[in-house]
Amino acid sequence: MDYSHHTPESQKNKHLNDYERGQISLLTDEGRTPYYIGKRLGRSSNTIRNELKRGTVPQIRSGKKVMVYLPDAGKSIYERNRLNSRKPFKFASCTNFINHVEEKLKTDKHSVDAICGRAMLEGAFDPGKTVCTKTIYNYIDAGLMKCKNIDLPLKVSRSNKSKRVRKNKKILGKSISERPESINDRSEFGHWEIDCVIGRKTQGESVLLTLTERKTRMEIIRKLPEKSSTAVQEALETLAKDAGELFAKAFKSITADNGSEFSDLDQFDHSDVYFAHPYSSCERGTNEHHNGLIRRFIPKGRSMNGYSVAAIEGIQRWCNNLPRRILGYMTPQEVFEQELLALQ
Hints:
The protein has 344 residues and is of the alpha/beta class. The chain folds into three domains: 18-85, Arc Repressor Mutant, subunit A (Orthogonal Bundle); 91-151; 176-343, 2-Layer Sandwich (Nucleotidyltransferase, domain 5). It is 40% helix and 12% strand. It contains 13 helices and seven strands. The chain has helices at 18-29, 34-41, 45-55, 71-85, 95-107, 112-122, 133-141, 181-184, 229-243, 246-250, 285-294, 309-320, 332-343; strands at 56-61, 64-69, 191-198, 207-213, 219-224, 253-256, 272-275. It has a five-stranded mixed sheet with strand order 5-4-3-6-7, with helices on both faces. The chain has a two-stranded antiparallel ribbon with strand order 1-2. Helix 2 packs across helix 3. It is elongated, with a radius of gyration of 33 Å.
């Protein structure tokens, strides 16, 4: 039978084969230099030198000890080095850490990265007995863990829908383009983004008013009886009254979208108010992300009326005690309290 690849020709960036090792042995016995052998075989001279160093072993000939290159010795050492070069599989040695990740995913609904990062920050496990976030995802994909992709809060819910560009229609007040750079770069504390999260789109439905502090990611959630500008104004006035003198320092600005429920927000005297460009939710990305966290507990289309104030407070508490990579795996509550202490 004829074969299309019947010659032992070497390929670039490929390891030496048995034929090449045999040629190295013959040419070395002839007294050829590594440079000559490399040219002959189409290999780098350093490759030849490394192979000679690897496969040269002591031999007894005519009662004398001599150093001789043996192809079998070179191949044996090469194969042993290849076994030791691969990264060890750590799954079996990280059982406690993996059990911790599985438990946190089940009970706290934190993301894999939040769980791993927080464990590293607290030093809860020996670094040699842990794996990184990407490795945990690999274990889940391989079916090595009890949890599956469907159990992860975000992995199966990403949307690839194309976006339409719409013409701007409403401008309710000062544009976000006028917002100072100290707000845009999150270097200053006390700047918030605001939005409403709705359940069913029917009359008489309650909604959630959400505020997110841009620097610390602190979340405030208030249940409103309806989606209206009056309800929003009353909730903000109550918040300002409860905070007292601290409100002016901790709520320097609020950025909203152009929804009708924020049509009177420009009249709120306690903070500077900015409005994002219409159909540009990305300009309030921090708040939109937190709305997604709330959707883990209250899916779209589910009525808000059945959720008590205590239940809403529980969701708020969960959001503010979720370790964040962007905060060095501290929680928004911890960072927010540090900022409040700095104000006093």
